[in-house]
Amino acid sequence: MDNSIAVVIPTFNRKHCISRAIESVLSQTLAANEIIVVDDGSSDGTGSFLEEKYPQLRYLSQSNLGVSAARNRGVIESSSKWLAFLDSDDEWLEKKLELQIQRLIENPEYQLIHSEEIWIRNGVRVNQKKKHQKGGGHIFDKCLPLCAISPSSVILSRQLFEEVGGFDEELPACEDYDLWLKICSRYPVLFIEQALIKKYGGHDDQLSRLHWGMDRFRVQAMGNLLQSGNLNPDQITKTRTMLLSKCEILLAGAEKRDNRETVDHYRSMIKKYGE
């Protein structure tokens, strides 16, 4: 049975912390078949550093096209059955791959598995809020308000990734939210309650800090999903309800700032999906 694993690590100017991520892959009790780092146009010497320190991994470089393009390229350049993503500022616990592959073998009807996680903010462990609690099964409803799966916690099949079209390169952020919506609208997912990753946050280069109003991109993702024709009637109703709720909040903010173009945009969205 083919249970080969490709690890894809996108990075941008993270020379200072990428070793932590790579070392956590190399320390796995189940070795990955491919480790691919896609450098999205770094200017901090990441490339020369990686090629010298980690000759055993595959290093790819591209112009600054965004994290979605970097992950997608890593998948295209790989050949393994299973795909595991790792953000370059996160790290895995040593049994991550072993435990997840074992669970997938035991449950061959599933094509995606994720896990609980440990959150580190500014060097301090913090507890997740209730709204961030993870789970398995049919979780489409839980995926609508916010991102319910962390990319670094996932293993999914290449077949599934290709079926839903990979990461949307038109989204500057919330590309993971978009992918999980597409997947979870079609299939249930597996979940391991044990924490298998450490997620580090609080630094200035996180996408959530670089872009205001992350719900803008969630609204865009939901609109795309509604236009896809792949939702059942119940999913359509729930997606429209969530989209309209987020549009109302974004509209109120735009009106407060007197941003007429944005006001017109969200009024148009509300009219389109509220009828």
Description:
This protein is α/β, with parallel strands linked by helices and 275 residues long. Strands 1, 2, 3, 4, 5, 6, 7, 8 and 9 form a 9-stranded mixed beta sheet that branches. The longest helix is centred in the C-terminal third of the chain and has 25 residues, at 233-257. Helix 7 packs parallel to helix 9, helix 9 (215-228) packs antiparallel against helix 10 (233-257) and helix 10 (233-257) runs antiparallel to helix 11 (260-274). It has 11 helices and 9 strands. It has 2 domains: 5-210, Spore Coat Polysaccharide Biosynthesis Protein SpsA, Chain A (Alpha-Beta Complex), CATH 3.90.550.10; 232-274. The protein starts with a strand and ends with a helix.
Note the total helix count.
11
Strand portion? 15-25%
Shape, principal axes of CA atoms: globular
The number of domains: 2
CATH superfamily of the largest domain: Spore Coat Polysaccharide Biosynthesis Protein SpsA, Chain A
Number of strands: 9
Largest sheet: 9 strands, mixed
CATH architecture annotation of the largest domain: Alpha-Beta Complex
CATH topology of the largest domain: Spore Coat Polysaccharide Biosynthesis Protein SpsA, Chain A
Low-confidence stretches: none
